[in-house]
Amino acid sequence: ATECDLPEHRRSPPPIDFSKVDPSKPEELLKMSKKGRTLMVFATVSGDPTEKETEEITGLWQGSLFNANFDIQRFVVGSNRVIFMLRDGSLAWEVKDFLVSQERCIDVTVEGQVFPGKAAKKDDAKYKQQNDVKAKKSKKKSEHKKPDLEGNSASHLKQEL
């Protein structure tokens, strides 16, 4: 039997050329070690979706990835959880980068590492963000009232009095 006929766990891992590995990028090494191996990427969908909604949302994600030439299978494993199975695990990080940028993605798990998605920031910091926006707006208004010529508003006020 040739290597290709063997089940994946029996195949020898792809040879890694360590001279091409950038030690400051451990992900590069992981990518190389996963080349040609099946890898699962887990994703969580925000907003308490039903399984059907999750099916629809993640179907769109899968479609986008498919259009970008990612050979990927999708399995909905809960009302808001989905597994994307990649034939070539070295692409997992690109898939992860795509998924975390999606509006409804809370998090993506690759090889036991959890990466927060766009929706995670919203849920945790929803209240904080609203306040930040208000604070920014009020600051802007006060900045535009009078140009502060000396850079010291206290002495500026004295002159007006």
From TrEMBL:
Pfam families with a match to the protein in the record: Mesd
Biased composition (Basic and acidic residues): 1-11, 120-135
One Gene Ontology CC term in the entry: endoplasmic reticulum
Coiled-coil region: none
Bias kind Polar residues: ranges: 152-161
Cell compartment(s), UniProt: Endoplasmic reticulum
InterPro entries: MESD
Statement: the UniProt record of this protein carries the keyword Manganese: no
Disordered as annotated region, ranges: 1-23, 119-161
UniProt keyword list: Chaperone, Endoplasmic reticulum, Signal, Wnt signaling pathway
GO biological process: protein folding; Wnt signaling pathway
Family designation: Belongs to the MESD family.
Protein name: LRP chaperone MESD
